[in-house]
Amino acid sequence: MVARRLSKASRGMALVMVLWLVAAMSLLVAGVVYIARVDVKQTQYLSQRTKMQATLDGAINLAMQELLLRGQESEQGLHRGVIEELEVELNGLRAKVRLVPTSGLIHLGSVSPQLLSQVLVHGLGFEEVNIEQLLQQMAESKQPDAEDLAGLQLNRVAFESVEELMLIPGVNADNFARLKELFYVGPGGGSGINPKAAPPEVLTILAAGDVGAVQEFVAQRQQAGPEDLSLPAGFVEDFSSNLNSSSYRVDARMAVSPSLVLQRRVWVDFSASPLGLPWDIHRREALTSVATDQSASGGLGEQN
């Protein structure tokens, strides 16, 4: 009787162990299947983004080729110093391409403290700022060398990259996305902004935050053309310039879905390329998503 009871207990324990083993194997298999599904979805996602990036790169090349052809047919030549907007179809997909001359942006390497103060006040909504104190705090956070200190003494700001704007007290990741749309980093450039080539967000700085004056000037610029434009009375002349540039910021946007618009940005110079090409792309930015509420109008939305 005792042996028979022990035998039943042993069989019960064996059954429990088998069930535990099956449960463990089931969890292991489920984990492997889940990882495999994640890998498949990630591969599909990366493949789609790579195709979209290649399509946007192709749209940018077609738009730059169209700009070259327009320049050959125009009496003013290629560098008219105006914003160009084109719609390109490639492989059944439509992309909107916007070419902004860098003469209409703020050159980060030579921005004056006074202009930077206007950017913080009218571009980000800061209260009246003590720009000297902000620059001193930024310089201390950078642990400046002699060149940085010399830059402050020469009444200019010694920025080396757009990301250094985040060293300014009060600038965070949220408003940095808007702030970097106003600047460019590259060779050449001056301390002034050409209003004929400036996008609305930069014109807002020149107009000291007067949105109505900006809208009126943009409408006048579209109707009259850059040759017949004069600077409105409300614009700050100290920050303006008439210089044109052969370099452009090129943004190509494509709506992947009603809620997702992808953007590819490159910085290109239409002067002679070392490879003998008609243009030289000196920087490409990673593919980003932009806010859909401004993508249709060509405006610059929040980037992610």
Description:
With 304 residues, this protein is of the alpha+beta class. Strand 5 and strand 6 form a beta hairpin. Residues 146-155 and 294-304 have low confidence and may be disordered. It is elongated, with a radius of gyration of 28 Å. The chain has helices spanning 2-73, 113-124, 131-142, 146-153, 173-179, 200-206, 211-224, 292-295, and strands at 84-90, 93-101, 106-107, 183-184, 247-257, 260-269, 280-284, 288-290. The protein folds into two domains: 42-102 and 243-295; 106-239, no CATH class. The N and C termini lie far apart (75 Å). Helix content is 45%, strand content 16%.
Primary descriptors:
single chain; 304 residues; alpha+beta; 6-stranded antiparallel β-sheet; 45% helix
Structural class: alpha+beta
Strand coverage percent? 15-25%
Q: Report the total helices.
A: 8
Helix percent band: 40-55%
| Number of β-strand runs | 8
Name the average pLDDT: 77
Overall domain count:
2
CA-atom Rg in angstroms: 28 Å
Q: What composes the largest sheet?
A: 6 strands, antiparallel
- The N- to C-terminal Cα distance equals 75 Å
Residue stretches low in confidence (pLDDT < 50, at least 5 long) are: 146-155, 294-304
Instruction: Name the overall outline.
Output: elongated
What order do the SSEs take from the amino end to the carboxyl end, as H and E?
Answer: HEEEHHHHEHHEEEEH
